[in-house]
Amino acid sequence: MRPGQLVRTPILLTVGVFLTFTMSMMAQVQSQTTKTKEPFTRIVQVEKGEVVYVSGHDLILKMGDGTIRHVTVPEGATATVDGKQIGIHDVKVGMKLQKTISTTTTPTTITKVDTVTGKVFHVTPPLSVILTLDDGTNQEFKIPEGQKFDVDGQMVDAWGLREGMKVSATKVTETPETVVTQKAKVTGTMPPPPPANIPILFVVIH
Asked: What is the pLDDT of residues 7-41, one digit of tens each?
C-alpha cells in the first residue's frame, strides 16, 4: 500500500426498508444519498533501522530488533534526513532511518433514500403493492409488517389502498462502509563523520 492510498472496504447491509405513502398528484423519482462518519481510530507504528548496504534502488537495513530487511525503494520516494529532503540516490551507508506509519480507520454509514411516486396498479394486502411509474412501467414493492399509509391525511394500513390512488413510496437503505487511510513518513540522520587523521609524533633519541 502506497502512502496516502485510500482503501475502501464496503460491507453491504440493508438495515431496513420503510414504505411511507401519501396522496400525490404527480409521478416522479427522487434519490438522496448522505454519509455519516463515526469516531475514527488511529494506529501509529514506528520502524527504525540502519543502512548497511545501498545499490541503485536496493536498500538493506539492519532493523532495531537485529533483523536484516531488503527494501526496493521507488524512484520518487523521499526521506527527511537532518531536515533535508533526499532520494534513494542520496542514501549513505550508516544512515539511521525511521519510518512512521499512521493508519486511520473511519466507520461511515451511507444512507440512501429513494422516493418513487406513481399510481396503484394492484395491491395484495398486507404483502405488496404494484405501482405504475411515470414511465409507464409497473414495479412491485413489499410492504413491511405493521406499515401505515398516509392517504389524504388519514393513516390506513395496506387494506386501505385502492387501485388508481396516487401514492408515494420511500425506500431507505443504510450501508456501513469502512474507510482506511494510511500515511507513511521516513526521517533519519546522517552517519557520523569518519575520524580525523591524527598525526603521530615520533621522538628520536640519539
From this structure: 443 333 333 344 444 433 334 567 889 999 999 99
> In total, how many domains does the chain have?
2
Beta bridge partners of 52: none
- The cell numbers describing 36, all together, are 455519516
- Other residues' Cβ atoms within 10 Å of the Cβ of residue 185: 13
Assigned domain for 203 exists: no
In the numeric block, which cell numbers belong to residue 74? 521507488
Same-domain check for residues 112 and 101? no
Tell me which residue of 125, 103, 114, 123 sits closest to 185, measured CA to CA. Answer: 103
The 10s digit of each residue's pLDDT in 155-173 is: 778 888 889 888 776 777 8
Beta carbons of 170 and 18 less than 8 angstroms apart = yes
Residue whose C-alpha is closest to residue 19's, from 170, 172, 174? 170
Whether 2 is covered by a domain: the verdict is: no
- Could you list the residue range(s) of the whole structural domain that residue 78 is in? 41-106+181-189
- What does each C-alpha distance from 83 to 32, 79, 150 come to in angstroms? 48, 9, 68
How many Cβ atoms from other residues are within 10 Å of residue 140's Cβ?
12
Supply the pTM of this predicted model: 0.53
